[in-house]
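Amino Acid Chain and Its Fold in Token Form
===========================================
Purpose: to set a sequence beside its fold so the mapping can be learned.
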Amino acid sequence: MLKLPFNNPKKAVIGILLVITLFVAYKAKATELEVGAAYTGEFNGGVGLTLSERFADKIDLGVALFSDQQWEAVDVDNNGNFWFAYVAEKPATWVVGLPDEVHIGGGYWFKTQSPINGCKETFLLGLKWRLGDHASVGIRHWSNAGICSPNRGQDLLTFGWRF
């Protein structure tokens, strides 16, 4: 069963969504809002939400929130992270169908959660296909790259809208 990105008290969820809505309404330049299915090698009922801003046409700075997730008798609570990514855009002459953007960066988790992440530091890899000027489909992977254990990582299939 798909879960909402937050299972906090109802008033807290309303507050979080209100702040995100106001941020997008006030900023609305290169802000991108993405939502999608969270997974850890398999889809597990989790949902993720990211909000990012692009700077100097090559650096994204964002925050991600994840719902609780369950798989193979493992329960993981809500979590989130702050992240940055260097963005490389596909040259116009390259093959159609390749990702329009490739992201590589790092981040910091709000809390450690076995088996997703054994430490708060994380690396980020991502691919994004642009569907016109505003819509996108992407994949992100956060992992500690073996600097600590466990290291299952967190994946997110996103559907986004750039304002």
